């Protein structure tokens, strides 16, 4: 295993960057989709609510690999995309449904008194959303969003099956030519693990930084690991 | 054989004779017309060759599907005992597995979208986007014609062919029989270009230490070729004998 | 200044306001009393259209406010509101809380808004906490900031919904002090509160709501010592 | 699309049963693994805690497809398994990590007074766990467990890549022979969606039934859809 | 019956018990008093080894209880404990709560356990609620069931940690009544409580804890009217 790790790192590093680029782009787009759908869900229009509901139900009710394949071939009937962009759009649409629920939850978790106070000061709904509700909601969304980003990073491996040579695609190809699949797959797994650990660390740091600004909310206060049940 | 086929991996091919040993042979199942599924039933040239060989050897034929990119790994991991899956015999692969005698010969062919007039031969493929089955011998051939970043790999040659009309690919390299079948069933989508890139020998793959079975397979293969069984199967699927000669 | 005529409001099958009539004159301070659930908050929220009434009319300065034809956002800039739970914006400092609406709604130049904000904070005794986040303040301090924030829009009317009932007893005084000052300066105010001392000292009129209707009203002195209705007497006994 | 739905339903129904069998077996095993790892995590042994921590970190830090491939080929080096059992074990080990966190959370959410009361009555730790803590914890675990089961059902599609002919494997094979991948994939997606919707319904029913026994806890009481933020 | 010698207990860097000595005789009722954080609960929990002391000795019936050599589960069956927050098992009915330990720990045949449970529930006045789940009970009812549950193990000593302080005032009486009855029957009891009436009427001795130590103790009559220590006097003034 270590020989693979040592000998083929330039190839895997390149694939890692592709994975990161793909993940980043699809998650950024996913945040846009998610925000839109979240607004649909909390809007007063029955039609928009229904659209959002159906979208979320279908995406959360079917496997990602099926979505990727459908979107890869389905999107093409409308517009021709490279496999990078087809994969990125598929992941964005997938992650968008989950991110929508995160945003909706965090927006609705903001005390309704905030919206009332903003309105009582003469702010319009969009202005109050933009200046008062969303900044607070985004902060609250960071932990679950970080978690979703990690899931999105791992899930990006499935675009290997529409021909992307990102980390997993590269691993598959490599294993098929060196006939040492177990070792190769372990190396790929290690790359993902390191990426996830780095990302987890960054998200935790960010959370802590945001929390020190305002007063820290303490949790119940037992150390969970030392709890005796 | 050590594979405990549960019947989950392959459609049950008739009643099994409990007194006979299983002859397990793998294929991708997405390589029409050599091996594919229709209404859940695995069929095609490779499937029937396996059945004929098993009969000659007095064994139970158990065809199994496995993704092509890990088909040799599965063999080494003893998930099945042979691969009858249109594996081209290459020096690379010969390092990993033992091959039987050639069981058919075919050509690697370039296919392009029906409306594409800019690609007329292999020389036009430089810098073009080529689609191939992941870890196939065609992937190696494509690498000689264009650079790695322009190659897209698929789970199935058929999927690659279907990505031609979308414009995502400029060309696909695969077995000519696979492309011709697609052209016949779905007219006016793709076309073949130029002469075959190579004439390849296809072999049945076995584990290197499985010498006894290799001998039996080679003997049975000889027999079905001699007694006309092979001829019949080949005629059924291709209208001609694809054994060819060197 | 405010005239409410025959106001009705239901939530689903629950009718909360059942034909309320109320006048509030300019520079008048009205205290609204009543048991929990009697509809005080709902009435107050109808006055600045945080809730839309189902029937009846609301006139302000002689003009009927119809949600369909009026720009409610604009209208609300003229009516300040102070909430029981303050509802300060936690992601903004005290100063930012106060200048938010002037700058983003009224388009006051930030420099001028800041100047005016400092003056208002001075007035409520919170000048030195201008750069602090609400989380760091006591309840009484928060409520004083909330009052300054509402005043920053220069409203003509101020509505208070139990502004001191979420406060520790020792912090109630500082908020009432600010409200008294405001009344003295001639602000028109409608205040839901159970602080009898405040009502007696400051209010021009006490209004008693019961079960979605106004049952009785009058000058505080008279109202508290000699209520006409049995129901009012019961209520006053229960809170005094 | 509808012709595929109509013509090939016997094949897809058979594949559906295989998917369900695979999912059920892997989730049952996953619950066993999860319970064990959850106990490791709350145990007082540093070694067991570390094992559990590493296990959960690695599984949650790497893509499922990589895990399936590693386990499929890795397990084989120890014992030869059919692809059904190799896939089932891989899914069980994967789901086990997530289920472990669910169990740990629900066990730790039980008031510590329960364990103290049990101990003060002379109950041993294992007895108190079995009779007092776990019955309460299991009930609390049902909603997140139901959610994980839905995820497990969808994720089972990935064993198609180790050769299982379950729903997705069947769809892939079918699309390669009827040359109509988009329609075929849509049909497969529909099968998954129906399964997920049925399962969601069952879990909701179960939750409601369990809640009517004890006093119902009411949520904050606004109707979220009609909230005005 | 119980003899505590020089008991020390720390949580991390915080030393909560600082050399406690205490004797409780057979059939004696001891009331433990002290400010919040003085270590009363910790001492009680050390007595039945829910917390392990760091130093010192605990003897029960003349025998030293050493966690390393004693079967603590067995020992705890002889010491009943009643908690401030009841800690009834919510997934079991009142009857099941009471028979749980006899059946699963003592292996009493279920029929006999049930019979005994009914008698105990009768005694605490909860016979008619035997088949109800704890969620349906008031706080006072819950606490009476908790006492019956502890008694079902036939303990020789009963420990009570503020058994009435989570109850609405009008429910305190019914729980104290049960405890008085228990004392009259000769149960050895250690009770943390601030109910002075109970202490005066029932306790044989009052023990005052301060900052992890026993500062003063004596007969209730004498203790309450004429405490020796300034600190005790302060405390008594604050709660009376
Ligand atoms: N948004 C709402 N949806 C449904 N019911 C509501 C809503 N707001 C208020 N109510 C109900 O209307 C009734 C009157 O409420 P309101 O808040 O006006 O009473 P109140 O006099 O302010 O009482 P309190 O002193 O408790 O604040 C109550 O029964 C309340 O539950
Ligand atoms: N498990 C624990 N971990 C850490 N500190 C603890 C723990 N249990 C108690 N303490 C601390 O020990 C000190 C004494 O607590 P204890 O509960 O014995 O006091 P108490 O006299 O019962 O007070 P109260 O009247 O509030 O119940 C407190 O400072 C408390 O915070
Ligand atoms: Mg109110
Ligand atoms: Mg205590």
UniProtKB/TrEMBL annotation, chains A, D:
Chain ranges of the ABC transmembrane type-1 domain: 16-203
The keyword Lipid metabolism appears for this protein: no
GO molecular function, one term: transmembrane transporter activity
Keywords: Amino-acid transport, Cell membrane, Membrane, Transmembrane, Transmembrane helix, Transport
Pfam families for the chain: BPD_transp_1 (PF00528)
Protein's membrane topology: Multi-pass membrane protein
Location of this chain's protein in the cell: Cell membrane
GO biological process, any: amino acid transport
Superkingdom per UniProt: Bacteria
Transmembrane segments: 20-40, 52-75, 81-100, 185-203
Keyword Cell division on entry: no
InterPro entries per the UniProt record, alphabetical: AA_ABC_transptr_permease_3TM, ArtM/GltK/GlnP/TcyL/YhdX-like, MetI-like, MetI-like_sf
Gene Ontology CC annotations of this record: ATP-binding cassette (ABC) transporter complex
Family: Belongs to the binding-protein-dependent transport system permease family.
NCBIfam families: HEQRo_perm_3TM
Name of the protein in its database record: Amino acid ABC transporter permease
Automatic annotation (TrEMBL), chains C, E:
Domain ABC transporter, residue spans: 2-236
Tree of life domain: Bacteria
CDD domains: ABC_HisP_GlnQ
InterPro entries in the cross-refs: AAA+_ATPase, ABC_ATPase_HisP-typ, ABC_transporter-like_ATP-bd, ABC_transporter-like_CS, MetN_ABC_transporter-like, P-loop_NTPase
Transmembrane stretches, start-end: none
Record flagged with keyword Cytoplasm: no
One Pfam family here: ABC_tran
MF terms (GO), sorted A to Z: ABC-type amino acid transporter activity; ATP binding; ATP hydrolysis activity
Keyword list, A-Z: ATP-binding, Nucleotide-binding, Transport
PANTHER family: AMINO ACID IMPORT ATP-BINDING PROTEIN (PTHR43166), ARGININE TRANSPORT ATP-BINDING PROTEIN ARTM (PTHR43166:SF37)
Protein name: Amino acid ABC transporter ATP-binding protein
Organism: Brevibacillus borstelensis AK1
Lineage: Bacteria, Bacillati, Bacillota, Bacilli, Bacillales
């Amino acid at each position: 295993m270590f020989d693979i790790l040592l000998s083929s790192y330039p190839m895997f590093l390149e694939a890692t960057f592709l994975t990161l680029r793909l993940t980043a782009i699809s998650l950024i787009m996913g945040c846009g989709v998610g925000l839109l759908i979240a607004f649909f869900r909390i809007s007063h229009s029955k039609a928009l609510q229904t659209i959002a509901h159906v979208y979320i139900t279908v995406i959360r009710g079917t496997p990602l690999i099926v979505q990727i394949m459908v979107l890869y071939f389905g999107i093409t009937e409308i517009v021709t995309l490279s496999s990078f962009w087809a994969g990125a759009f598929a992941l964005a649409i997938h992650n968008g449904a989950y991110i929508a629920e995160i945003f909706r939850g965090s927006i609705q978790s903001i005390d309704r008194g905030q919206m009332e106070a903003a309105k009582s000061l003469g702010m319009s709904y969009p202005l109050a959303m933009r200046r008062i509700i969303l900044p607070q909601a985004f902060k609250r969304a960071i932990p679950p969003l970080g978690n979703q980003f990690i899931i999105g990073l791992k899930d990006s491996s499935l675009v290997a099956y529409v021909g992307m040579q990102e980390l997993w695609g590269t691993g598959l190809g490599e294993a098929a030519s060196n006939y040492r699949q177990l070792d190769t797959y372990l190396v790929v797994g290690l790359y993902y693990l390191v990426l996830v650990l780095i990302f987890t660390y960054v998200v935790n740091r960010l959370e802590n930084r945001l929390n020190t600004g305002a007063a820290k909310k303490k949790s119940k206060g037992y150390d969970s690991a030392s709890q005796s049940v | 054989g050590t594979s405990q086929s549960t019947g989950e991996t392959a459609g049950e091919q008739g009643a099994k004779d409990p007194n006979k040993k299983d002859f397990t042979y793998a294929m991708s199942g997405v390589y029409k017309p050599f091996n594919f599924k229709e209404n859940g039933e695995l069929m095609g040239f490779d499937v029937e060759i396996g059945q004929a060989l098993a009969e000659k050897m007095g064994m139970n034929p158990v065809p199994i599907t496995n993704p092509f990119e890990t088909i040799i790994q599965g063999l080494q991991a003893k998930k099945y005992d042979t691969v009858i899956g249109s594996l081209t015999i290459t020096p690379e692969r010969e390092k990993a597995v033992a091959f039987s005698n050639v069981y058919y010969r075919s050509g690697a062919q370039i296919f392009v979208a029906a409306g594409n007039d800019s690609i007329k031969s292999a020389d036009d493929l430089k810098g073009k986007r080529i689609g191939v089955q992941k870890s196939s011998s065609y992937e190696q051939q494509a690498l000689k014609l264009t650079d790695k970043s322009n190659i897209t790999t698929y789970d199935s040659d058929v999927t690659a062919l279907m990505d031609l009309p979308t414009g995502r690919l400029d060309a696909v390299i695969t077995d000519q029989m696979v492309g011709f079948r697609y052209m016949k069933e779905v007219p006016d989508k793709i076309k073949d270009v130029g002469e075959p890139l190579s004439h390849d020998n296809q072999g049945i793959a076995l584990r290197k230490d499985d010498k006894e079975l290799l001998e039996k397979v080679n003997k049975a293969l000889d027999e079905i070729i001699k007694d006309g069984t092979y001829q019949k199967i080949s005629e059924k699927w291709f209208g001609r004998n694809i054994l060819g000669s060197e | 200044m405010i005239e409410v005529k025959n106001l009705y409001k239901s939530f689903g099958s629950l009718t909360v306001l059942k034909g309320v009539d109320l006048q509030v004159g300019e520079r008048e301070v009205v205290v609204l009393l009543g048991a929990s659930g009697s509809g005080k908050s709902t009435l107050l929220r109808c006055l600045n259209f945080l809730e839309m009434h189902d029937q009846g009319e609301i006139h302000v300065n002689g003009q009927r406010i119809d949600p369909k034809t009026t720009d409610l956002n604009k209208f609300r800039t003229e009516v300040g509101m102070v909430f029981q739970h303050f509802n300060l914006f936690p992601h903004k400092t005290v100063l930012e809380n106060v200048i938010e609406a002037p700058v983003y709604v009224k388009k006051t130049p930030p420099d001028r808004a800041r100047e005016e904000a400092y003056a208002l904070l001075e007035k409520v005794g919170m000048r030195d906490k201008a750069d602090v986040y609400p989380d760091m303040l006591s309840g009484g301090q928060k409520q004083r900031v909330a009052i300054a924030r509402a005043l920053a829009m220069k409203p003509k009317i101020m509505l208070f919904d139990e502004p001191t009932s979420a406060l520790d007893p020792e912090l109630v005084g500082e908020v009432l002090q600010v409200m008294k000052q405001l009344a003295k300066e001639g602000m028109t105010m409608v205040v839901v509160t159970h602080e009898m001392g405040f009502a007696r000292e400051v209010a021009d009129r006490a209004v008693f709501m019961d079960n979605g209707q106004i049952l009785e009203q009058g000058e505080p002195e008279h109202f508290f010592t000699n209520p006409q209705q049995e129901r009012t007497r019961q209520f006053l006994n229960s809170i005094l």
